[in-house]
Design a protein that fits this description.
This protein is an all-alpha fold. The chain is built from 7 helices and no strands. It has one domain. The relative contact order is 0.11.
Length: 204
């Protein structure tokens, strides 16, 4: 009997296909939100800002690679598809959650997403831009620095664009503190997991 073993090339192909599919789904949902805003789930949640920010978030790594990384990056010899997938998933999953109304109907969904999606985003950014030989403490500090900063920017953006003029304002302080804690915790876990993943076999 022949045993099928996935080679690195095969695994790389699957990551590439998954990243491309995530992009297609992301832009498909964004387009549908433009055409059918009432069905998007983001109509009253800063939809205009999301329709601007989400494409940028999904394309920032390919644009960086096209403008700089492919000729001058010392971290990657080819486009970092795994990082691209991880940096695309937060925007895609957020849109899917809003489209299915999960943020308003499932009590734990928003909290889980702040933890999980900040983990994905932080892991993607570290894979794309952080050197492989960073120590555990430095990797942790970088993850915390990026994750906490991104969480603060997100919460400020939410407040400015729709929370201050919505019924959510009454509970915004408590909710924001929880979201910041969860997002930063997700980023911390991502940094620790990525450090373990990047360690050389001889170091384990």
């Amino acid at each position: 009997m022949t045993t099928m073993v996935a080679t690195p090339a095969v695994r790389a192909d699957w990551v590439r296909y998954a990243a491309v599919l995530a992009k297609v789904l992301l832009f498909g949902l964004l387009l549908s939100a433009l055409i059918w805003p009432d069905l998007s789930g983001i109509k009253t949640k800063a939809s205009t800002a999301r329709l601007i920010v989400y494409p940028i978030g999904g394309m920032v790594l390919p644009l960086w690679w096209w403008a700089y990384g492919r000729t001058r990056s010392t971290l990657h010899r080819s486009f970092p598809w795994a990082a691209d997938l991880l940096m695309t998933l937060p925007w895609l999953i957020d849109l899917i959650g809003n489209r299915l109304n999960l943020f308003d109907t499932v009590d734990w969904w928003d909290d889980a997403m702040h933890f999980v999606l900040w983990g994905f985003l932080t892991a993607g950014v570290l894979l794309a831009f952080a050197p492989r030989d960073l120590s555990r403490p430095i990797t942790t500090l970088v993850a915390l620095g990026f994750g906490a900063t991104a969480a603060i920017v997100w919460e400020v953006g939410e407040y400015v664009t729709f929370v201050r003029n919505s019924p959510e304002l009454a509970t915004a302080y408590t909710d924001t503190l929880g979201d910041l804690t969860l997002g930063t915790s997700g980023a911390l876990l991502a940094g620790l997991v990525l450090y373990q993943f990047r360690r050389k076999p001889t170091d384990r």
